[in-house]
Amino acid sequence: MKVTLLVSGLLFLPDSVQSFLSPGVHRAAAMNLPGKTRLTSTSSGAIQPLRRSLQASSSVVKKPASRLMVNLLTATSTFGTSSIIKSLPILGTLVVAGLLAARLPGVIARGWRSYNKEENSVGREYDAWTREKILEHYWGEHIHLGYYTEEDQKAGYLKKNFIGAKYDFIDRMMAFAKLDGQTFKPAKVLDVGCGIGGTTRYIAKKLGTTSQVSGITLSQEQVRRAKELAEEQDVTNAEFQVMDALHMSYPDNSFDLVWACESGEHMPDKKAYVEEMVRVLKPGGTLVIACWCQRDAKAFPLSRLEQKRVDFMCTEWSHPYFISIQDFERLALDTGVMENVRTEDWAKFTLPSWRHSVWVGVFDPFFWMLRPHLWVKILRDAFTLNVFHNAFKDGLMGYGMIYAQKKK
């Protein structure tokens, strides 16, 4: 039976990587991807003899590059040249990932981007991601998770547009904030941790020029890019500044809506984070937060292994620490000026984003493969995305949504 090079690419990967990829591979195999060769899969029983044959051919070759060449030539004679050429992008992705994963098993499991306030580690990392353009290429203007309904997930999350899922998330968060542009149309909005300004501009467009939307971030590069995109899109009612969310220069009672999507994770003082957003919020105004949260350790203490997993998620992506959804609720109430506080956990609706983030790079590999100096970093990020996926799936982490209004 004829199979595509996707199967032969899997032969190069260590078992641990194959185990990680296999669920998505079989989902991808059932899809007709635009502009791509239809992927086909075989049962594991059909793959094993083929794998043993190719590995036997390459066992005498010691250098990885030479061994891969033997495997590639053997696969070509087995499957036919046309299948090899048509599926070459996916082969390259799998081969590069397999080689890097095989060489770095010990290193990759240790976080290397710990939070450091003095060095502005958060701003530094987002500066780098913005300059590299990889995040924007795959994620678009929105550096946050997407929203997948139960119907989306039943149909197969890979069938949903990855960037479209992020817009769906914003729409859902706007509904959570009761931001419909009619009964609630704030004149002044603050986006805390705005990234390259995707949500800031989106809200500005939705509300129209009678509203002013401000975005703040610690990254100079993000502000530069946000301004570029605002000019390109002719969004005149959005502005961007480099500003510390814990020490904002805005006067008290400045904004009708304070919006914070996936910025609280990076805050070294969650109490000060909430209090500062409440300070700049007008009486009667709305605060809405979306944040990765850990399980409530007061009610369900973390085991040593769970704490180790949380520590890795912190030290790899410059997070000082996580708190629970319940902690956020308490912090809002403890200000003494917030009411109508409600929370939800959107973990099940955002869960597919983690692995979908990896698969968009597999289906469209050329952008990152042409940047070999970033391969190790990209592999680390793919590994970390899967760590987060497992943590959210296991209930170790939750996706906190917090809504509150400031008393009049």
Automatic annotation (TrEMBL):
Residues 189-198 are annotated as: SAM motif I. It comes from the Eukaryota. GO terms for biological process: methylation. The lineage of its organism: Eukaryota, Sar, Stramenopiles, Ochrophyta, Eustigmatophyceae. Residues 190-289 form the Methyltransferase type domain. The keyword tRNA-binding does not apply. Belongs to the class I-like SAM-binding methyltransferase superfamily. gTMT family. One of its GO terms (molecular function) is S-adenosylmethionine-dependent methyltransferase activity. This is Methyltransferase type 11 domain-containing protein.
